[in-house]
Amino acid sequence: MKRVVSISLGSSKRNKRVETTLRNEQIVLERIGADGDQKRMRQLFLEYDGQVDAFGFGGTDLGLEVNGRYFPLHSVRSIVAGVQSPVVDGGGIRTVVERQTAQQLQTLLPPHPKRVLFCVAVGRYAMVRGFLDAGYQPLFGDLAFGLGIPVFLRSLSALHLLARILLPVMARLPFSWIYPTGEQQERIVPKFGAQYMWASIIADDFHYIRQHLPPSLEGKTIVTNTTTDDDVALLKERGVANLATVTPRLDGRSFGTNVMEAALTALAGAGRPLSTTELREMLDEEGMTPSLLSLTQ
User: Fold this and answer.
1) What's the rounded Cα separation, in Å, for the pair 220 and 106?
2) Who contacts 129 (Cβ-Cβ below 8 Å, separation ≥6)?
3) CATH fold of 96-248, please?
4) Distances, alpha carbon 155 to alpha carbons 71, 74, 267, in Å
5) 55 forms bridges with which residues in the sheet?
6) Is 50 exposed, middle or buried (CB count within 10 Å of its CB: 0-12, 13-18, 19+)?
7) With contact defined as beta carbons under 8 Å apart, do 92 and 281 qualify?
């Protein structure tokens, strides 16, 4: 049986283990949180190295690709230095799948104003391009959600400029400065209510969406991944109408793109991360489309 372990900087309260079947093969998918402790995270990678078919790197990315340029996140890449088993962060799946998300949602959602809020758009660049292709008016909260500066961008050119200027610097900052980790993921400090309310769709990593969640999101659609039953209950309580996840729900939750990319890497058996072409071929076979959950019933 194939085995995949996703080691995450996030909370251990979200740990999960699922045995499932993908491409007619049994596979174990497991998620282990390091509670924001990078030393503990590296320890786990070294402990499981050679015992798994592939690792997922969760809670952050090893790098970000924006407008054809790759920005490595140096503050976290050292965590997997020397690890022999394949390590993937889900970026390949996001490149392939998330560009199609907006178009696929068109047939699943009722008519709605085409307004979308991305909390930190540089981390979901393929999805951003897909929503723009589908005619959505965007609002990019990278400065607000990522750095606490209450400024929102409204154009792709402004996002490109921001990425060129800030990502090389941010890539070297301590990761906890720019992303909620460990216990920080459990706190909600409502902010930016006007921006949440402006949008029909709020799309991003769930921890970014959750950290400033307003008391009411009546009628909104959330597009994200890695949600638990508690997350779903929270969104339902806030009045969210629909929850769309870009990876399948397994055993009551959706695993992150890093887990799903690691699963496909393990099943391919090549002993290395897969190219986007290889992932696209495997994803076409699996038919991975957004999973839409109505929260109003």
Assistant:
1) 15
2) 99
3) Rossmann fold (3.40.50)
4) 21, 28, 39
5) 5, 87
6) exposed
7) no
**CATH code reported for the domain at 2-90+256-289:** 3.40.50
Annotate 135-188 with DSSP letters as a single string: TPEEEE-IIIIIH-----B--HHHHHHHHHHHHHHHTTS-GGGTS--GGGGG--
pLDDT digits 0-9 by tens, 24-56? 899 999 999 998 899 999 999 999 999 999 999
50 CA to centre of own chain: 26
What digits encode the pLDDT tens for the residues 72-111?
988 889 999 999 999 999 999 888 889 989 999 988 999 9
Question: Sign of dihedral through CA atoms 137, 143, 146, 149?
Answer: negative
Q: Are domains 2-90+256-289 and 96-248 of this chain identical in fold?
A: yes
Per-domain residue ranges of the chain: 2-90+256-289, 96-248
Amino acid letter, 26: Q
What pTM was computed for the model? 0.86
Residue with tokens 């459990």: 186
Angle at CA of residue 186, ends 185 and 187, nearest 5°: 95
Residue 88 CA to residue 58 CA, distance in Å, equals: 9
CA 118 – CA 265 distance, rounded (Å): 28
Exposure of 58 by Cβ count < 10 A (0-12 exposed, 13-18 middle, 19+ buried)? buried
Distance spanning both ends of the chain, measured CA to CA: 38
